[in-house]
Design brief:
Elements lengths: L2 H25 L5 H23 L5 H29 L1
Helix pairs in contact: 1-2, 1-3, 2-3
Length: 90
């Protein structure tokens, strides 16, 4: 895993998640758009944080980027669960 690949992964996966949120809001405008907006804000914060961490590596780069990739997927999974719960409650 290198910096370029990691940045592309962050771009792709976070953008796909935000697209899913936006699609729900577009198809269901009368439902909890405010809660979805908060989830989108969290995804944008995740994106910014991961990009910052990618540009400021600590320690061995290969292990560092592997750990960042794991963190990205864990946090995106948490956001997906939050989105699913919000959608189910609406």
């Amino acid at each position: 895993m290198n910096l370029r690949v990691f940045k592309k992964d962050v771009e792709f996966f976070v953008a796909e998640f935000i697209d899913d949120c936006a699609l729900f809001v577009a198809l269901n405008p009368h439902k909890d758009a405010d809660k979805i907006s908060e989830i989108i804000d969290e995804a944008v914060d995740l994106y910014n944080e991961l990009k910052y961490k990618a540009n400021h590596p600590e320690g061995k780069k290969k292990a560092y980027y592997s750990a960042l990739t794991k963190e990205m997927f864990e946090r995106l999974d948490t956001l997906c669960e939050k989105l699913s719960t919000t959608i189910a409650q609406s």
